[in-house]
Records
---
Amino acid sequence: MASPVPAKYKVGLVQMAMSSDTAANLQAAIAKVEEAAAAGARLVCLPELFRSRYFAQREDAALFDLAEPVPGPTTNALGTVAQRAGVVVIAPVFERRAPGLYHNSAAVIDADGRLVGIYRKMHIPDDPAYYEKFYFAPGDLGFRAFDTRVGRIGTLVCWDQWYPEGARLTALQGASVLFYPTAIGWHPAEKATQGAAQLDAWRTIQRGHAIANGCYVAAVNRVGLERPGGGEGATLDGIEFWGSSFLADPFGAIVAEAPQDREAILVAEVDLARIEEVRRGWPFLRDRRIDAYSGLGSRFIDPQP
């Protein structure tokens, strides 16, 4: 018989700095999963593409060698630690689906070590120092929710966090928490003039997803300055990843937040009764006009002549 879903449980958000040593990054992640579990977390989420430095700062076909299948080395190793520690793990991976076909994915591993499924990042950016369209095909599995030992959760990835449609469609499948493994930061030359506004926009949009959907939202970022090597589009400035991982409750209140400038393991509580409480008072799902949203399937609605 399946264990009952807990009414309350703690999540562990792992804010990491990455080295150029992929094996060392995996071992560090394993240790941090175990540390979060020892602190009471029953679900642990790692940051986007944690096995390596953020390689999409430049275009280099040799970097496809970083990709791996799912199941594969990362999911196998984290499946072992998930089972040993008795925790659910969200494991972002650079997925090698077939020769020449790669995705930016997140694997969901249950507390018994079983791979529940994968989410493939749907929105793929192409901006200075974020040349992801060179590396990743857009996700083709849609927005998904996964049943785990702690209940139904959803995971999206980084650039997805700016799109209310993805959050809504995941929440409508019954996800109580939306997890966003992330790699986002400042271009150092812009930080003084635009940095505060960029960070505030990032935090605000995700708090908005929590409020609009009446669910918890967890953002899990990396931290530290990473400079690319050579290659097409490379810059010497790099990206200063801004940390600031956080958990927001169903009305957007920040439950816990990590610092901007160092590693942290954020352990914070999810209370499913809070979802019920907020949705009763602010019944956005009840009042949605599902008969009036057909235009959302259009790229843009041109004005009629």
---
Amino acid sequence: MKTLPWIILVLVALAAICASPFFGAVAMNPLAPLSDTARSILFDIRFPRTVTAFAAGGLLALCGLVFQALFRNDLADPFTLGTASGASCGAAVTILFGASAFVPLGAMIGSLLSMAIVFGLAGIRRDPSPLSLLLAGIATSFLFSSMMMFMQNFSSLHDSFRIVRWLMGGIETCGWSGLPVMIAIGLAATLTVLALSPVLDQLLLGDDIARSHGVKVSRMRLVLSLAITLTVGGVVATCGPIGFVGLMVPHACRAVFGHSHRKLIPSAMIAGGALLVICDIVARTVAAPAEIPTGVITSLLGGPFFLLLLARKYDR
């Protein structure tokens, strides 16, 4: 295993994590003595925000990596498969009815409902193909997006603005209260995916080859989809829907670290975390003292990246 790419990846991630708390509307000098106000900003806002960004970015990259392997499609990620839209819709319902304390629960219920619809539309009892599941996911994404637009049309101006602003995605948490649920679900999902990484390698080769090696394809696809769907719900509940991280990072990591998921899982999670921390720094500083939603920054990066990916693919 080549160590230089790992060293560079870890150093970039550590540099982003160490630098992040000192950037924002109020810039800080890490070498200067901290006042009480500066200490409060660092420990109550900036540090938990940095941890949240790194954890969310890593989990989104993991979700995209697993979905692309499960469905053997470069376009597969939490958004194209409808899980992010379902989680967003569930969270939007709780916001609309003034039950903000239940946003995590609403997001998880929405993500699970979206995955149930996907497998139901694809006909899970008939052993659906990856393509049918992907198409069902796209249809489900449009369904939940339409439901959110319907709710906004009948909501008050205040609630509609809150929903739209939340749907842009952002790392705006204050304190540590939003982290435990996301980290607990993400840790369980990460351990599950790591344990089943050989299965992902087999599924990437095709269902028939995987079955010939004793993999129960439908069951494994369902187990992995359930773990990743809950993870998407946890991330969306904490940060809102942040796009393109799960699409960009797995492709970049495959180009550097190969196709073995034992290497891809940790590398994608580190790279995804570093990317979202850097995007959050940009979101806080480029228009300071105002903030741009982090999801806007990732989308601005994701569009050109995907066009470049398509250009390289068809150029071969």
---
Amino acid sequence: MTENPAPHPFSIPNYRYLWFSRLSSMVALYALLLIVGWQAYNLAREDMGIGASAGILGLLGLLQFIPLFILTPLTGWVADHLDRRRVARTVLAAQTGIALLLAMLTLYDHITLGWIYCIAVLLGICRAFLGPAISSLAPNLVPRGSLPRAIALSTIAWQVGVIAGPGLAGPFYKLGPAVPYFLCCALYALATVSIFMIGPVPRSAMDRSKGPLRQVMDGLAYVWSNKLVLGAITLDLFVMFLAGATAMIPVFAKDILGEGEIGLSLLAASPAVGAVMVAGIFSFAPLSKNVGNLMLGAMVVFGVGTIGFGLSQVLWLSMFCLAICGAADMFGVYIRSSLIQLHTPDDRRGRVSAVSQLTISASNELGDALTGGLAVIFGPVAAVVGGGAAAIAITGLWSRIFPQLGAAKTFEPPADELPANTGARTD
């Protein structure tokens, strides 16, 4: 801990508005995604078999990922070039409109797979722009010393959304299929208003002597040249790509553990519970020493937890292993995000955050596809256990390829490597 502790992020009004906006929007997002998937599956089942209908759910994920993949260079540039608050306001207002559209289509029984496909693409576009803007806005609202704690609190908001969103969606759906969409509309509206409450914030000025394409390339070049940032981003990419155990939760719940819907829900919530617990600890007692090796160790624990889940034959042990995975992942996310934000100049944070967001989405979506494919060939147990072992191996390999990871003792870069800002402006 430092001699002069930085203020708690919640003592800063602008950060409180940002945090509440993130909480509201995450609850809305995960509630909306659950109901969209449920409607899509039921619509498909009217004309297709179970296997083909399940494939629709994978297609929805792909339709959200493609815009993110295509737009990443642009969204990062936008987050660095424009007022990040205005970007967030625009996107959240658009998501409010999407939720209202879904509510009206459902209310008047006009919802179709075609509409759902279009909305999945729109959600992918919105998420592509919102992620870099929100991620790069937080460092403008709190002192550098408060940023690790702010990142932990932001992750709590995200994980609460993962748990509360689906938890609210089901009961509200029973009241009427359109009701959860109206709820999401209200939550997105609250998130939008919260961002409007954030006052002007100082940030570095972007070098406008270069054209947009050159600015985009500069952001990508920075990620490539900063080995600590590159190593942290790619470590998460490959570990999560190889160890996609959560994709197999329905299979394990039904066919390996012999559990029903309650067991499925408990397993699905377990990683988020572990993550929230760790994030809560870090929000009050942030790390300050040997952070690089702790991040590498967390990825090893994540692999061990994945192997344990694959081998478990009882519900409580499977839940425990998934909670360990969630806690270890949160440990890694907290350290990785803090290192990336504090080692990146403010005028490039949007572009670097966009690259980070792309790798996270790619590892999640494509990792689920990889695990599913391996499960078809080798069986679900072998796919999950093999993925956990591969995650451990890749962590060991990355510790050698990127010695900068283990060398990172604190979140702050050395004095001679502090990110330089090229002036200041107020959004």
---
Amino acid sequence: MPWGPDQADTLQAFNATTPLPNQEDSSMKTYDLYAIGNALVDSEYEVSDTQLQAMGVDKRHMTLIDAARRSELLGHLTASTARRTGGGSAGNTVVALAQLGGRAFYSCRVADDELGAFYTRDLIANGVATNLTRTLPAPGQTGSCMVMVTPDAERSMSTFLGATAELDHTALHEQDIAQSKIYYMEGYLAASSTGLQAALQGRQMAQDAGVALATTLSDVSMINFCRPGLDAIIGQGLDYLFCNEEEAQVWCGSQDIEQICHQISQLARTVCLTRGPQGCLVLEGKQQTAVPAVPVQALDTNGAGDMFAGAFLYAVTHGESHPQAAWLANQAAGLVVSQYGNRLTPEILGRIKGRAEAW
């Protein structure tokens, strides 16, 4: 069972009895990050709140849809121009880490179609190693996500899982997991029975090899409808957990930030609690470090949390302290919300990294 809110000493006991991965061995690893998640091609649309309501889309959250609902939504958007990019939460995270200069491996599943080929090319172009280059694509359709951005910069996602709904243990590469510093499980896999089991099998492989564990709560919808899966991913504790304030509030059933910090900090050695314009809190047991955000004019929040996780994990796998890693992550996430789209260019990320090195 996951750690409960009244187990104040559990994290300290976990830290005392569970050694951190060997740092000398870690420096010799092939990959900084091994991740498993949903392969989705994003199509992003700018819409009004009126359009969103007319389509019956739940604002600010992710909703799983079937092929018929996807066709219905596309019918509402025939006059809109979409921006297409590689996506998926963990996919965005591994690309961010790779663009910053890290080494990443991504396990996922695509179909034998044009979107699947596009997704595979996108990972390769961004320097991410993947099981997709070693296995034949699946039948059916590649997963896709319709991202609708309203003028207040909020993103609402309608996700058709397609082939990634059947992501399973065959996507795992045990040797590559063992040769990674951190194993990262996308929280959205809590919605898929086979994907969840694959993530958990990989988790055990990582634990057996002394690899650090990380995940994200992903979305309020996952907490509301798939919490048992998230509980299983968290297990008896992680090394890194990422969540935003709304997710933490729903997880803890509280609006009180002190109570939230006390409760959520028991899930991992290090918790990054992002708070939008207020920056983030890095929680390590009873210690809290506030790291300020970058003042920006937000246009599109799609991909902000994924970018934060990728930049943070890049920094900690390259010797930076957790506050320094959170500073870099805030910089990167701030820039991604100040534009449309879920990615930054390697050039922009390189400039951010240069400022972080001087910080």
